[in-house]
Amino acid sequence: MEANMTLVLEIFLTGLTDGRELQEGLQVPLFLVFLVIYLTTMVGNLGLIFLIWKDPHIHTPMYSFLRSLAFADACSSSSVTPKILTNFLSKDHISFIECITQFYIFAVSATTENFLLVVMAYDCYAAICNPLLYPLVMSNRLCTCLISASYAIGFLHPIIHIGLLLRLTFCRSNIIHHCFCEILPLFTISCTDPSINALVLFISASFIQAFTFITIIVSYTFVLFATLKKKSEKGTSKAFSTCSAHLLYVFLFYGTLFFMYVRPGSGPDQY
């Protein structure tokens, strides 16, 4: 019981600071590297949001989706990186409540990004495959509804995992070898069987990632065929430039999520 109370009050994160020699020798360089990455991410995302807000000529559905995606990405970075920076310079522990909060904000942001990427793929499909009907198909009202639905799913989905996590009893250790409070490492320090938690996480993550990824690929397949049919070389070039950056972001984002939650060794039988 005493070990359980210690863990509930405080968790030590040793993902990037494991070993005193490594910590003392590299803590300042690592701090600077992560600080530069974080500041670059925030300046890029917040700058994009400001520029879209400032120019009324681009208050269109396409840029509204981009602004929402930038905000979700900024929230995702802010939920994790500031605590990592703090760990480099001072304490490498976090309270259990902070840990749950950090995971929730990160999960909300990641889930929201999943569905915003789907919406952006559909928007690209509508703009390129049906350009004449685009103003009718993608109205401002539909745009607002799609963004709201993405955030609603993002806020609701992690609540399931938080509820299941709170049923666990933690008594093995208060150390997790991870750089932030991600849910899978928490399963390893539970003395209650977390197999149900892991199963629900694996199924939900697999479904969300597979459904959204396949939807995006199907949308861009139609976009590709529509682009190849264009007789204008300028139109083809413009279509590819519009969607290529989005596709690159999609593959980087989903590659990371699949590695974290759906890769071999992350299934429920591992806990």
From TrEMBL:
The keyword Transmembrane helix applies. Its main location: membrane. It holds the Pfam family 7tm_4. The keyword Transmembrane helix applies. The chain crosses the membrane at residues 29-53, 146-168, 208-228, 240-262. It comes from the Eukaryota. Residues 44-271 form the G-protein coupled receptors family 1 profile domain. GO terms for cellular component: plasma membrane. It is found in: Cell membrane. GO terms for molecular function: G protein-coupled receptor activity; olfactory receptor activity. InterPro entries: GPCR_Rhodpsn_7TM (IPR017452), Olfact_rcpt (IPR000725), Olfactory_GPCR (IPR050516). PROSITE patterns: G_PROTEIN_RECEP_F1_2. Keywords: Cell membrane, G-protein coupled receptor, Membrane, Olfaction, Receptor, Sensory transduction, Transducer, Transmembrane, Transmembrane helix. It is a multi-pass membrane protein. This is Olfactory receptor 5AC1-like.
